[in-house]
Design goal:
Shape: globular
Number of strands: 4
Largest sheet: 4 strands, antiparallel
CATH superfamily: NADH Oxidase
CATH class: Alpha Beta
Number of domains: 1
Strand order of the largest sheet: 1-2-4-3
Order of helices and strands: HHEHHEHHEHEH
Helix content: 25-40%
Strand content: 5-15%
Distance between the termini: 26 Å
CATH architecture: 3-Layer(aba) Sandwich
Radius of gyration: 18 Å
């Protein structure tokens, strides 16, 4: 069973990256609902390495401001919420809970490059699931780089094992701030069936 054309439009075809926002707030319930959807997306060995800080209060936004590139300050300060999508380099310590039917943890112990690549890859997937979940729940998204990762990590994840990946502004976009839609590749330009 496929989703309706309207649902596919909302999630993919007509969804846009927003940089201007209305003042309509995003509730705690909506942020919890985003997580309750995104958590079901697949990750390597069910590792679930993503860690998310939903930055919403004015005080937290001011703590984020100094880490932002100049071109990202206005849109981030105006967004009702900015999700810091990060990954935990100690995710494997939680694998006995997440993979109770086998010893998944031991395959990662002492293998720092495998830990880093798995955390970053699966954490990035979970960030994409966050965007899809937010759009499915009626929010607009503005994912972006353009920030000082080390400064964000020190401010919002001071333990040192959680590393920021990207930011995603969340809220209800102001369509007057949209730029013309950029093109995408046709299937034959970027994919093949073998």
């Amino acid at each position: 069973m496929s989703l309706s054309p309207d649902a596919l439009d909302r999630i993919f075809r007509t969804a846009r990256t927003h940089r201007a926002w209305t003042a309509r707030p995003v509730s705690d319930e909506t942020l919890h609902a985003i997580y309750e959807l995104m958590k079901w997306g697949p990750t390597s060995s069910n590792s679930c390495p993503a860690r998310i800080a939903f930055v919403r209060s004015p005080e937290a936004k001011e703590r984020l401001r100094p880490a932002l590139d100049a071109g990202n300050v206005t849109q981030t300060m105006a967004a009702p919420v900015t999700a810091i999508v990060a990954y935990d380099l100690e995710f494997h310590d939680r694998l006995p809970l997440l993979v109770p039917h086998r010893d998944a943890r031991s395959g990662f112990v002492g293998r720092s490059e495998l830990i880093r690549s798995t955390a970053q890859q699966s954490g990035t997937l979970q960030g994409a699931y966050l965007i899809i979940a937010a759009r499915a729940l009626g929010l607009d998204c503005g994912p972006m780089g353009g920030f000082d990762n080390a400064q964000v990590d020190a401010t919002f994840f001071p333990g040192g094992t959680v590393k920021s990946n990207f930011l995603c502004n969340l809220g209800y976009g102001d369509p007057t701030g949209l730029m013309p839609r950029s093109p995408r590749f046709d299937f034959n330009e970027m994919a093949k069936i073998v």
